[in-house]
Please model this.
Amino acid sequence: MRYSPDRVGLERKWSMHRSVFVLSLVAALALSCSAPVRPYTCRVDPEFADVDVHAAWGCNRDVLRRIVRGKAFSLREFRSAADFFEDLTGLRVDWDGTFVGMLPGPDLDRDLEDLDAWYELHRHGLRWDAGPGKVVLEGLAPAPEPG
Model:
């Protein structure tokens, strides 16, 4: 089969476009995999004697609200916020277990409403307990650590 000069030129041009597309795709994947991990900002140093419990609540609530709105989050942020609320309130935050860890469940928006209602009822009883290094509800004994 003989090729005309025009056909050879078109094939080279198509091959070049395909190469540029593949290289762009590889570069995009590489950049997305090397994105910096956002530092988790809701961590509280248990050594502090005086922690603003309402700021700790608000920070963890903001993590869940950001997830409900479809914004970026890390699995570590979600796990830590879910643990914070479950330990403090006893309310389970909806999540789905996968091989990569805890992922937010479809009912997270309702859980956020339940947590807001709980906070309105109990916000004046929240205190920092330096012993275990966590926020507790005054008048309730902290749950024993599993072990």
Strands lie at 95-98, 101-104, 126-129, 134-137.
